[in-house]
Amino acid sequence: MDRTRLLLVISLTLIFVLAATAFRSPVPRLGSIISAGRMLEPRSGHTATLLPDGKVLIAGGMRRNQDFYSSAELYDPATGKFQFTGEMHQRRVGQVAVLLHSGKVLIAAGWVGQGGTDSAELYDPSTGNFSVISKMTARRGRPSATLLSNGDALIAGGEEADNKSLASAEIFDARTLTFKSTGSMHHSRISHTATLLNDGRVLITGGYGDSIFASAEIYDPQKGTFTETGDMTIARCKHTAGLLPDGKVLIAGGSDSRGWNGNLSSAEIYDPRTGKFTATASMNESRFKLPDEAVQLPSGKLLIAGGSKQVEIYDPSTAKFLAAAGQLDDAWHFMSETKLRDGSVLLAGGYPNDDQASARTWVYKP
Prior knowledge:
Elements (H helix, E strand, L loop, with lengths): L2 H21 L5 E15 L3 E4 L5 E4 L2 E3 L2 E2 L3 E5 L4 E5 L10 E4 L5 E4 L11 E5 L4 E4 L11 E4 L5 E4 L2 E3 L2 E2 L3 E5 L4 E5 L10 E4 L5 E4 L10 E5 L4 E5 L10 E4 L5 E4 L14 E5 L4 E5 L14 E2 L5 E3 L7 E4 L4 E6 L10 E4 L5 E4 L9 E8 L1
Parallel strand pairs: 1-29
Antiparallel strand pairs: 1-32, 2-3, 3-6, 4-5, 6-7, 8-9, 9-10, 10-11, 12-13, 13-16, 14-15, 16-17, 18-19, 19-20, 20-21, 22-23, 23-24, 24-25, 26-27, 27-28, 28-29, 30-31, 31-32
């Protein structure tokens, strides 16, 4: 090949490459992840609750296995700073936190060493102190907690001791600050999800007891009973769930019976009108050990973080997951995600593939 023809071939090749690059559809992304400050303690399995004044109460969790915290701290979005607040009366990880209509925060259950605890306490933002309240009806590690329409809270399942998961449930009476038993689930569950539906009922999905469950059930506060509903398309635990603007529920991720080797990217939608689950598009990354509740953004889209470096946004209008711009620095498990007043989301803590927790935080900006 002479020099002229060689130059012509090279030029045409470059033109085709540049044209292909120019017309290639960019990967659509929604919002971005930016690094924020560090918590005062590295934490995983903690709770993070938005307070009425816009600050976030971060409580408990663990530094590493069996090294649990009683400490708590406040994140101020206005300054991006963390500061210690009052200490809990019990070291705990895998507890629940519920913002009550009074503006106080119920902290209950969690693991305290060799099993769950029945202790509960109330955080008062006006004083920055925790006060002990009456005990729960059972010791529970990693149960679910749901604020009901009447201001009370449903606490369901969890693990009493090693390999002893619970089917029982109880109601926290926000008026008397006491707990009372309610109907039991049809399966003992831990690492399940609980989602308040628009009609005031609660959807319970998946989790594990003697096996990993595909089953789901509905709690009716008016009757105080659980009723089985349709099964999910796949058995999963340590997944996430989020209410969509149309009243349906997105279920995503988690793991099957293989645990770390069985992470899931699949997702499905529950329709309360039919009681059935149908598959939707899968996430871009498989992930488990997720926050129980996906964050509903002001747009109605759902944010899912944890278990992967990538943060994903589910768009119900297209039934697809898109990646947020930027990434976390590791696949943090049992991190927290908290929607702030301006619609951004605080992502905090978690642990990677070892059990050493992180103090790192990020903020998702829509």
